[in-house]
Write a structure and sequence with these properties.
The protein is of the alpha/beta class and 557 residues long. It has 16 helices and 20 strands. Strands 1, 2, 3, 4, 5, 6, 17 and 18 form an eight-stranded mixed beta sheet that branches. Bound molecules: 3-acetylpyridine adenine dinucleotide (N01). The site of 3-acetylpyridine adenine dinucleotide has 26 residues, from helix 5.
Length: 557
Amino acid sequence: MPDSSRSSTVAGNAAGTLDILVIGAGFAGLYAVHAARQAGHDVLCLEAGSGVGGTWFFNRYPGARCDVESIDYSYSFDEDLQNDWKWSERYATQPEILSYINHVAERFDLLRSIRLETRVVAADWDESAAVWRVATDAGEVHVARHVLCAAGSLSVPNKPPIPGVDDFAGEVLFTSQWPEPAPDLAGKRVGIVGTGSSGIQSIPVIAQEAEELTVFQRTPNFSVPALNRPLTEEDQRRIREEYPERRRKSRVSGGGSPYVAHPKSAEECDPDERTAALEKGWTTGGVLFGKTFPDQYTNIVSNDYARDFAVAKIRAIVEDPEVADDLIPSDHPIGTKRICTDSGYYATFNRDNVALVNLRKDPIEHIADWGVKTSESSYELDVLVFATGFDAMTGALTRMDIRGEGGVLLRDAWADGPVTYLGYQVPAFPNFFILNGPGSPAVLANMVLGSEMQVDWLLALIRAADEQGADRVAVSPDVAQEWTTQLQEAAEQTLFPRANSWYMGANIEGKPRKFMLYLGGLGTYAAFCDEIAADDYRGFELTAASAAAERTEQVVR
Ligand code: N01
């Protein structure tokens, strides 16, 4: 529990209380700092890393790139910023994205409101004072009227519980915590566990550097070539010309980019039209192939056409048919696990220094000081890389001791899966707002545009509460349960629950198996949030905390 006897050590208003405390300085947290300051709030952001950037600060593994086009995956709130920054490639590398984020932090002087290397460990709602007391790993307690939690959807690495996992005597690396300076893999025997997006991006690059690379694959994933390329001067000119319209389309779109699916179901197309649409989807590159047809996530027939097309592409690249067999997923409809975006992934398995171990046929028995022992073989290694994913969506929130009304712990409130209203709030946690939380579109849409939309909306909610003299903003259990049930019912209408994905919490042992995201798309979500705001923030209780403390629930609006 935070030590509430300590006062905040940071500059707040006269009473030492901040208006807004932001947790996390990734894309969402940084924009929250900027926008909250612009709105006149006293704001402080606490960031665990030694630099800003969140995901893009930590995930420095070889080959790390975004799978959304750089011109879309960037802030839109400032036109000069948008026009001044020149992305060098269609899909930006992690170093370029991080240098963009650092540029933004410098340009808007954000660092003066951010405390780095400061991890939030706990937060307590003080009902009588209507403030949060937020404790850090340095033993400080900060007091704030509101908390905006931007701790990340994919920020808690999953260390797999493989027997002997701590026994390996060589170098152990996690893609999600890649060291700097980067380790030298030349001349080394490297093993990598995990073939999701991080594994699939890093494998082709590690294969070029290492002496030998052994890929330990439990479940194959679908991957589509990025078709990355440098952006020319002509591209730069066109991008600036088209930006306003591109952003407008993106904000009303499902995925936060201007992409539109083929107008018909695959079932309604004749074979030539279907193949042409799939070829176009494939050459669009990356994750968008999953949206070639409008019903690809709801109609297994349509999905199977896309799947068969992708399978033929894999077979055409991989020379050894048995290796190709092992690389082809058979456990989920295409796209129900996030499609990976690669640069040369499948061709990497044609290299002499790369071996694929299918753990479904030959499972890992244990890890020893010398390497990996499977049921059939032993692999001596110098370096072992884990690309084993994250405790996604809820992990960062449930690892902090967040206590709401009556001392209820957030992780207990979510023991059966996360419950939120619009992804923003959890019953019994007043004035605590989540960015890109479970119940919002989050990772299913462009996170940068989505974060801007959510921050603007929440700041308007806080303004409305302030104007009404309400110092407590909360949601009732009924409204949050209704929203959460609706999301799950919507997911049941799709193919998503068929996959053991991190969207479902299925990648972490013991985690409730529930679809955690809003599937209606960013544009629909934003329009619905606007409708809620226009209807006097329907579903939110804007009250005086003193009244709440006396449990009279006086609604002041
Ligand atoms: O993690 P993952 P990720 N033994 O969970 C395997 C985003 N992202 O970091 O499926 C053996 O997808 C696991 O196998 P299985 C993107 O949203 C984006 O790669 O559980 N293997 C799987 O193969 C993405 O979806 C970008 O059987 C084990 C792998 O580890 C999300 O982050 C780049 C195991 C984990 O894959 C997560 O991607 C990178 C075990 N005990 C990430 N435990 C881009 O923008 C786990 N695995 C391009």
